[in-house]
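Work package 3, deliverable 3.1, input record:
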Amino acid sequence: MKLPRLLSIPLLTAILLGLPVVWAWPAGLPLWRSLGIVLGWAGCGLLLASLLLMLRESWLAERLGGLERMYAWHHVLGTLAYLLLLAHPLALAVDNLAESPALAWALVSPLTQGWPLWFGWLGLLCLMLGMVASFSRRLPYPLWRGLHALLAVAILFGCLHLWLLGLGPSFFFMLLLSLLFLGWRFLRIDSSLAARPYLVSQVQRVAADIVEIALRPLGMPITARPGQFVLVGFGDGDTFRGCGECHPYTICAVDPEGHLRISIKALGDCTRHLQTVEIGVPVGVQGPFGDFLLDRPPLPQFWLAGGIGLTPFLAVLRDERLMQPTQLFYFYRRPEDGAYVEELRTLAARQPSLTLHVHCGDFNAATLAGLLPDSAALAGRIAFLCGPPGLLGSTAEILGQRGMAPASIHFECFDFR
Amino acid sequence: MMRKLFLLATVLFWAVVLGLWLLARSAPMSEPPLPLAEKTYALTEVARHGAENDCWMAIDGQVYDLTGYLPEHPSKPSIILPWCGREASDAYRTKTKGRAHSPAADQLLPAYRIGRLLAE
């Protein structure tokens, strides 16, 4: 990754963190009170940076090093902000502790406080509940999303806390940026104003739980390259009803008229429902995102795909003639899960640089180790892996043991929760 | 790792809040000692202490020397400083668009009381 992209998120974070902290830097106050003030403002700054990173705009993602990187930072900064904001009232209470334990308790007790502190407490509790949802993997997606929205409510309560404390200028700074980021997210992303309109033009079943869907642009198509991914929300058709959710899908083909093809595997309630999507359903497409397989170095390649993780490799094979010797290992669990096997064999017959290895079954680290190339065959290659986390983890470990440097191993893993 | 950090911090937070509550219960706040002979001050005397480094206020018939508290007041100095040396009962009761100060502020105030306001 180039230096400006690498530094972009740390720099933005430093600005959003530094501005309020410098503005409110305490002078001449006792240590714990100063610490409490700085912790509060630093938490606010990190929260703003975390908000900025949830804006799924392709131009922003390109400048900040990709959507996955943005979401990874979003999670880390959100958690750090939470830690600092938890410590903020406690440090202020500790400041009162020397005078009297009753005064220290009075500072945090909702029973002895008025609206300014009640809003502070409400903000903190919403933050806590929203974070519980963020870290819960078992919640159904709609419930998860609803609880995650509590984080936005927490920010508004935080602004009210500042306002009622009489901190006018800082309140306007927080409110303006919070409303800008939240409004942007709601209007452009959640209300799909940033999405381009498409229509489902073809639906083809390619495996037991996988359909390939062709999307025809109704206006200006997005400019996507094979292997990138898009965020797609399906609307209502004659009999089909969309699930009101937007999910990432890898583009498995782009044709010159701007038609896109995506493959959808039934992995949850919404994607299972999408197996029955019909021709003519309107679709909103945001993106494109990602640079997996784009601008590959001119080195021999090792590709590994697990299940639906085949799609970025398939998109490249459909689009271009490979110039470098490339090994493609494709793993899937059951015979009925083997999507595109015949097409891959046809493509391999036309691509002299491609060596195809297709394996069906249950795989663990030991069986994988027996199937993957040895150190000599991997020497000088660069690896691209896409599939379930377990498969990717085991493969990366084996490749490392066989002498491949971590910098030579590239992953594609969607994890936007 | 972030999940573990979140869980640990949340548990620690509630443990400290609980600890503060238990401490407060076991050591209730002592009333500030009242001066043996209570002093009375006229508003003109209060007005002589209208600076940041010497700030008295008259609130509800009592006189307070808030010089030591000023740096700890949550709002910016520009909000509280204009009330130094003045009768500030209304300001105390109508903070932030008509809302009164919190009971916690009521608890703090006696610690700074220096006497009674002389009726005029």
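Chain A has 15 helices and eleven strands.
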